């Protein structure tokens, strides 16, 4: 049989039905789909796909196991290096990473590496036996991990396997960080995240929630008073940016962070079972073009908005969101107002949003990043009738840990300065990685940083003996 140049399609919920529910959009591969897709892998000796994986998955090896029908071996192979394969299989931008280097991609579509990863990881979740608790020596060193997002979870998992006693400190009431509060249920079910975290708890990672580092205890106190030998900071980027336009402080304007956290962690999507209402209004405009903006617009639709807009100042080609997210948003009927920038939020007498003034843009010369800069078209102002606005134009670092840690160098944006290869900061024994260092980026890059830092912490503690 000849090799298909197209990926095996993945079954999905019908757009009309899913736009009204929070169940997962993508239903995952069946056994037959997975076998067909695995057959497309050429099992390259040099495997260029591997250079695109921040967590060093042996891609041909795990796909080779699926080819042979040994799904357990495929899953075990993934778990050796990746603490969160069921998460990565869903939210990792494979098209920009491993799949970008796939040899098949030169002539047709690359192998669906992410879809196969999800298939193997889900098999493991369904058939998992509790992981064996690791045995620690009496002289095992202790490492504190601040923040339980993708960077912290990865560092914790790797360090535990290296023989360190790890405690994760999380500010919120459930661990998972952005995987829990930022990514909607229809893209990443909470149960999947918690099942992956449960494996870490099973092997002996201690998880402390409702612990606000910098308030409950500082990093210095964790080391000097609590006796931790090293600290990894993975507190992410949780501080929203706003547009700086008039009327932005009216009622009915949310940061994407608040809007998604209310829906995700406070379970507003299960109102009235959970009394944490979220005011969605009839017409919602989400400002921005990244994955967070798509998540916001698609969440608004599911929470009952009649009309949900994406307002973005560049064209469709420049949207930073994953192509798959944009495609899903179009299918669900999200209205894209492209080459459009908000200039003012309009309010009624009660102080609530009643609309938004916008101006049309055109693309001018490329800016420093190589993207063409949007330029206002004079006289093209118009109004959009909306009653809720969600601002999704990025977020920065929360300053709490940095401001309470003596001798920790930060840059002018407030991010922690850390060595990109080791995560080492200006403070001995303190390492950092993920969005707190790089600014808002992807789950998988944060995981890669957690992996590198775990290795560096191991080297540091061995040297320090």
Report the end-to-end length measured between terminal Cα atoms: 59 Å
Class by alpha and beta content: alpha/beta
Query: How many DSSP E strands?
Result: 16
What is the mean predicted local confidence, pLDDT? 94
Largest sheet composition: 5 strands, parallel
How much of the residues is beta strand, in percent?
Answer: 15-25%
Shape: globular
What oligomerization state is this entry in?
A: single chain
Low-confidence stretches: none
Instruction: Tell me the radius of gyration.
Output: 23 Å
Physical arrangement of strands within the biggest beta sheet: 3-2-1-4-16
Tally of helical segments: 16
Summarize the amount of helix as a percent range.
Answer: 25-40%
Protein model, in words:
The strands form 4 sheets. A 5-stranded parallel sheet has the order 3-2-1-4-16. A 5-stranded parallel sheet has the order 6-14-7-8-9. It is an alpha/beta fold and 465 residues long. It is built from 16 helices and 16 strands. Strand 8 (307-311), helix 13 and strand 9 (335-337) form a beta-alpha-beta unit. The radius of gyration is 23 Å and the shape is globular. The mean pLDDT is 94. Helix content is 32%, strand content 16%.
